[in-house]
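Appendix C: a fully annotated inverse folding record. The material below is reproduced so that readers can follow the format used throughout the book. The structure is listed first as tokens, followed by the designed sequence.
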């Protein structure tokens, strides 16, 4: 976009532009109809402000999508327009219109009455003294505050792009959580024969949510295939909704069919431009796939979400086919354990000797651990404990783990990650479940680690010098209890040969036959004795010590540990 002189949006300047758009009727509150566009609402009682904004942003394109402008000239019109278009991305909102605080009343209406927290609200005022920035930003849930005088064409462009990017990321996170909830809500009935259709519909719906395609064109289908080479459409949406029961070779174009056949041959999910073929291993001679075609390019975030979603869906699907209720809990355990990373070799090449262990008290549990690289040099690791057991805790754990994975791709501050995860977990949490979480991000080149503790047991740092201490600083409340809670980020640095040991309270609260606890003192002594050993050996020795201590007693809580040595 070429540089332009400053455009002053004062009344005098806007009056000069009243005749630039002679085809538009002044006061018209409407929108140019379009598909696959970002909806941006202009709310201002000065027609010239509308004209200048349209002129400045008319050629803006973001993520291959243009802008669809909605226009309102009063607070009353704005309320009606946002109610009719809840998928509006950005509102450029004037303060003083029919009343001195008309714009601020619109903000309250959107956030408090419509409960719309996704739309980005940018307050634009020509009278800053009427609505001082410091007071407005604290009292009203707006996302930006701009004086009309400061918004040049370039600055307006930058502001809009930043807001669109935030909106896109928020929709991704929101869609992920709601998609998971759809599958979780379907779980109690999915072992019944009649739930097969609902389960398949849930898969297609969840993929749509994960890919952020609720407001865009998406065609999808669930397919089954066998070693004979035939691939059949079981259920479809969009243009594929009319082809249930037909062979894929008679329905798909050559490009889509080639993607499906390649995924079947390679036995893995494949992505190509706007499309993906999601592969699920099923029986020995059978497999399932989901084909998705969107009207937008699938990005790296989309791929990460789909990969998380795909994990172990095949086992759940096979269990529904067999309709064996007695196997449901075993399957749930397999799914839960399958969600935990077990490839510890990936970290060793980058100077981290890492190992982890989890053993639920029941068939499934509420503990979690995870580790993954955010980029080439930063390893994110997390351990958590849901305040419950069994299937409900396992599902709450799955939601928490998935949210952390997704949000960690968008934010790099541990405290900020936990804050956003907490806000999502608090919404619609009717059972008031909560989870303690310790999350850290270590720079594998320097040993410097940022962390945030959401009410979890402090991990132990075992120095190569022999010193051992609990990392007690920075602890706050668990996640899922209080919305809009703040979570602190702190840091520490590991030296060569230092070890970090994370655990859940199932370790220290393990009881023997007399009801005595294993406790922190025994754990510290055990870690001191294992100083300098490999992470797997430390955990194996801890598991063995717990088994000796609790012999003859029933395991009362999930036991989870994550340990790593920094070797650089």
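Designed amino acids, in order:
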């Amino acid at each position: 976009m070429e540089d332009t002189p400053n455009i002053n949006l004062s009344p005098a300047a806007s009056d000069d532009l009243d005749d630039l758009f002679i085809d538009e009727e002044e006061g018209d509150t409407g929108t140019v109809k379009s598909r696959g566009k970002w909806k941006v609402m202009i709310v201002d009682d000065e027609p010239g402000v509308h004209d200048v904004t349209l002129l400045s942003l008319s050629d803006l394109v973001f993520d291959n999508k243009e802008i669809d402008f909605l226009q309102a000239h009063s607070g009353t019109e704005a309320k009606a327009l946002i109610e009719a278009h809840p998928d509006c991305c950005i509102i450029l909102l004037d303060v003083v219109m029919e009343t001195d605080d008309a714009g601020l009343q619109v903000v309250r209406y959107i956030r408090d009455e419509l409960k719309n927290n996704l739309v980005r609200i940018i307050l634009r005022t020509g009278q800053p003294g009427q609505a001082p920035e410091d007071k407005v930003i604290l009292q009203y849930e707006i996302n930006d505050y701009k004086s009309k005088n400061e918004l040049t064409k370039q600055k307006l462009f930058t502001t809009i792009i930043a807001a669109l990017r935030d909106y896109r990321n928020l929709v991704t996170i929101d869609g992920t959580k709601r998609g998971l909830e759809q599958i979780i809500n379907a779980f109690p009935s999915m072992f019944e024969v009649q739930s097969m259709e609902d389960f398949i519909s849930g898969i297609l719906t969840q993929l749509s949510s994960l890919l952020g395609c609720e407001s865009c064109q998406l065609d999808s289908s669930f397919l089954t295939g066998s070693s004979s080479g035939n691939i059949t459409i079981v259920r479809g949406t969009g243009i594929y909704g009319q082809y249930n029961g037909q062979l894929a070779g008679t329905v798909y174009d050559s490009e889509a069919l080639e993607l499906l056949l390649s995924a079947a041959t390679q036995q893995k999910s494949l992505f190509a431009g706007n499309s993906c073929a999601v592969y699920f291993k099923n029986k020995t001679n059978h497999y399932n796939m989901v084909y998705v075609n969107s009207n937008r390019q699938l990005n790296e975030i989309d791929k990460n979400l789909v990969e998380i979603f795909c994990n172990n869906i095949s086992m759940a699907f096979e269990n529904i086919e067999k309709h064996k209720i007695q196997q449901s809990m075993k399957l749930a355990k397999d799914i839960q354990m399958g969600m935990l990373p077990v490839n510890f070799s990936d970290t060793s090449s980058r100077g981290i000797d890492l190992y982890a262990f989890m053993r639920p008290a029941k068939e499934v549990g509420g503990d979690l651990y995870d580790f993954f690289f955010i980029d080439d040099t930063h390893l994110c690791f997390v351990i958590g404990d849901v305040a419950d057991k069994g299937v409900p805790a396992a599902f709450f754990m799955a939601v928490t783990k998935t949210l952390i994975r997704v949000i960690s791709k968008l934010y790099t501050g541990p405290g900020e990650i936990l804050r956003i995860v907490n806000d999502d977990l608090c919404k619609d949490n009717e059972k008031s479940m909560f989870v303690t979480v310790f999350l850290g991000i270590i720079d594998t080149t320097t040993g410097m680690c940022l962390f945030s503790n959401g009410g979890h047991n402090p991990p132990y740092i075992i120095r190569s010098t022999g010193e051992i201490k609990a990392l007690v600083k920075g602890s706050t409340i668990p996640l899922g209890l209080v919305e809009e809670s703040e979570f602190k980020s702190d840091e520490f640095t590991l030296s060569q040969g230092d070890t970090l040991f994370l655990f859940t309270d199932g370790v220290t609260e393990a009881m023997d036959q007399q009801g005595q606890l294993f406790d922190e003192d025994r754990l510290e002594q055990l870690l001191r004795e294992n100083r300098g050993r490999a992470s797997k050996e430390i955990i194996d020795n801890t598991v063995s010590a717990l088994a000796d201590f609790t012999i003859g007693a029933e395991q009362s809580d999930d036991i989870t540990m994550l340990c790593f040595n920094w070797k650089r």
